[in-house]
Write a structure and sequence with these properties.
209 residues
């Protein structure tokens, strides 16, 4: 039940969130257009982290294609009555045992293949934890210490996996466009008034396109 509550963000208080974010003239019409917008969680933490890495600097469609190839190669077959739903998400242990060339052969850049391997091995060796409820900033620091993981990926994981309401992937290109092509540093300044609900501000900005 806890995992389902996290998945659907059932602990959110849209009224409290809207009361603060609506004070910003940019966000007010977005909240009015989509009242109660929540932040989708994750039923499989590693799967979301993998998709975040695969999605670095590529289109959503491109990332989805890579994720499908990744699951087909490394996921376990499962029997379901739903067409197309036939593989489980690859586990950290399975990816930790893979080699870079296997992942790169899917069309993944070698540097990102190395990042996926490093993250999987860090999880298997308990060097990084993606369990909701632990110190979020420590997890962000641990993730960013891994090669190939920067603030965007770390904050996206914190938002979706760790349920941190104040995550803000300030390097995101879509968010930059929505905010008038600000620099990442200026985006952080611009977002200060949205604390501690910056994850929800990001969701509204993403949805406004």
């Amino acid at each position: 039940l806890t995992r389902l509550r996290n998945l659907f963000d059932l602990g959110a208080r849209p009224d409290v969130i809207a009361e603060q974010l609506s004070a910003d003239p940019l966000l007010a019409p977005l909240l009015a257009a989509r009242p109660g917008l929540r932040v989708p969680g994750a039923f499989d933490a590693f799967d979301v982290a993998v998709r975040a890495i695969l999605g670095q600097q590529v289109s959503v469609a491109g990332a989805s294609t890579l994720a499908e190839r990744f699951a087909r190669l490394f996921g376990e077959p499962v029997a379901t009555p739903i067409s197309g739903l036939e593989r489980s998400s690859p586990t950290p242990a399975r990816i930790a045992a893979a080699c870079e060339s296997e992942i790169a052969a899917l069309g993944v850049m070698p540097s990102r293949a190395r990042t996926l391997l490093t993250l999987a091995r860090a999880l298997v060796n308990d060097e990084v934890s993606l369990t909701p409820g632990i110190a979020v900033r420590d997890v962000i620091d641990s993730l960013q210490a891994l090669p190939g993981i920067g603030p965007w990926t770390a904050h996206y994981v914190a938002m979706r996996v760790l349920r941190w309401p104040d995550a803000f992937p300030h390097g995101d290109l879509v968010l930059r466009r929505r905010l008038g092509a600000l620099t990442p540093a200026r985006m952080l300044e611009r977002s200060e008034g949205w604390r501690p609900w910056r994850s929800y501000a990001a969701m509204h900005l993403w949805a406004s396109g």
